[in-house]
Design a protein that fits this description.
By secondary structure, the chain is of the alpha/beta class. It contains 7 helices and 11 strands. It has 2 domains: 177 residues, Rossmann fold (3-Layer(aba) Sandwich), CATH 3.40.50; 79 residues, K homology (KH) domain (GMP Synthetase, Chain A, domain 3, 2-Layer Sandwich), CATH 3.30.300.
Amino acid sequence: MENINFLIVGKPNSGKSTFYNTLNDKYLSPTGPESGLTKDIFKNEVNILDTNFIFFDTPGLRRKNKIDDKDEAKLTYDVINLIDKIDVVFLLVDANENLTKQDLKIAEIVIKRRKILFVVFNKIDLLDDLDKFQKDKKHYFLESYSPANTINLKFISALSIDSIERILKTVIRTCRIKSTKISTPKLNTFVRDILKNQKFPKINKIEVKPKYMVQTDDDYPRFKIFINSSKKVPQSYKRFYENILRKKFLLVGVPIQLDFITSKNPYVKKN
């Protein structure tokens, strides 16, 4: 049976404990109207959809300048470090409040650690116009947030088990995508195809093209791409290559990393 380690994070009262309790009949996490009621990190296992989900429910993460208790500061530090041991992170956001810099900061931490990230807008049952809300949020992430291809954007009510089961099915599929292994022959067929059909950005007036590529043995899709340039590859080029790679191999909603390696001409004499 597949195991998935699962961390729920977010600001106080975003609905983390309600989400957890909807899945877990033992109700280990206290819930209520008072901000920051969960004081410890709770762990429990729930078997759903033939998958063993190991859930970690956390206290609400506050901004540093609002943490006035040493124990709470340590707990926040522990939560951030726990991300390294997790497969999937749910960033729960109250749909009735604006997305904050703190929400985006948490997302940035998760992405940098190469974890699967779901930004989950909760309490959609309280919205007046759900369709407009979803369109606005999807537009924001696609147009304004550069790691948008890494993020899974979802909309739920944590009170609904049906809503949660639908999103957990997506979690299972996404974990399988993250473990994708692409053979070197397939990757280099891809390279040959794009060399025929694709124009590449230029660096110092030279079109920078891939020569060949391989996948590494990391626990997420990471690739070494050997190119015909000794110049440092700009971020725009990395995004360009990442987009066509994701589209070709359906690597959506998972972290990937591209390492561009300069392939020097061995016949050039050194001075």
